[in-house]
């Protein structure tokens, strides 16, 4: 059951669990990814992936997908346990902005508070996946490889 929360922890120096994501990490400002770090990965971890998803976005896709994907990053070696602010390495998937790389929170004006789930996934293999996968394509390919995950939830609301 790889998608159950594990002992692994994901943190950021930019915001705390349940805290407001600083404007610099949103589409209303510099739009740079926040620094992230993780520890206590399951034994046997060979690679990692990072996802940022907004389940509060009022979007449902034709295939039953929901929310808005802000970042899909994978093929992260097991030796890496942090990403600096504005990180652009490893392999990027396709966000719902229609491009690779990070795209920060920017909920519709007047839509209220949104919760952004930054997730780290520990994989038991190094799948070496091609760039440009959507979050849903990525998850379909790695689901049998996930041995641990956890999340850091931040909030944002447009002024």
Structure description:
5% of the residues lie in helices and 31% in strands. With 159 residues, the protein is mainly beta. The chain has a single domain, classed as Phosphatidylethanolamine-binding Protein. The strands form 2 sheets. It has a 5-stranded antiparallel β-sheet, covered by helices on one side. Strands 1-2-5 form a 3-stranded antiparallel β-sheet, with no helix packed on it. The mean pLDDT is 92.
Attribute tags:
single chain, 159 residues, mainly beta, Phosphatidylethanolamine-binding Protein, 1 helix, 8 strands
The count of domains is: 1
**Which CATH-level-2 architecture?**
Alpha-Beta Complex
**What portion of residues is helical?**
under 10%
Anisotropy-based shape: globular
Unreliable spans? none
User: Please, what is the CATH homologous superfamily?
Assistant: PEBP-like
How do the strands of the widest beta sheet line up side by side? Answer: 6-4-3-7-8
Beta-strand content: 25-35%
What's the short version?
Helices cover 5% and strands 31% of the residues. The protein has 159 residues and is mostly beta strands. The longest helix is centred in the C-terminal third of the chain and has 8 residues, at 135-142.
């Amino acid at each position: 059951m790889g998608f159950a929360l594990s002992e692994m922890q994901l943190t950021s120096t930019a915001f705390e669990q349940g805290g407001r994501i600083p404007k610099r990490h949103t589409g209303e400002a510099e739009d740079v990814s926040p620094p992230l770090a993780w520890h206590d990965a399951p034994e046997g971890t060979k690679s990692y992936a990072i996802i940022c998803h907004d389940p509060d976005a009022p979007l449902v896709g034709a295939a039953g997908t929901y929310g808005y994907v802000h970042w899909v990053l994978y093929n992260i070696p097991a030796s890496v346990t942090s990403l600096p602010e504005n990180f652009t390495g490893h392999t990027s998937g396709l966000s719902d902005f229609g491009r690779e790389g990070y795209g920060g929170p920017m909920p519709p004006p007047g839509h209220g508070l949104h919760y952004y789930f930054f997730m780290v996934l520990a994989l038991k293999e190094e799948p070496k996946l091609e760039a440009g996968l959507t979050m849903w394509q990525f998850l379909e390919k790695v689901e049998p490889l996930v041995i641990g995950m956890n999340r850091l939830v931040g909030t944002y609301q447009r002024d």
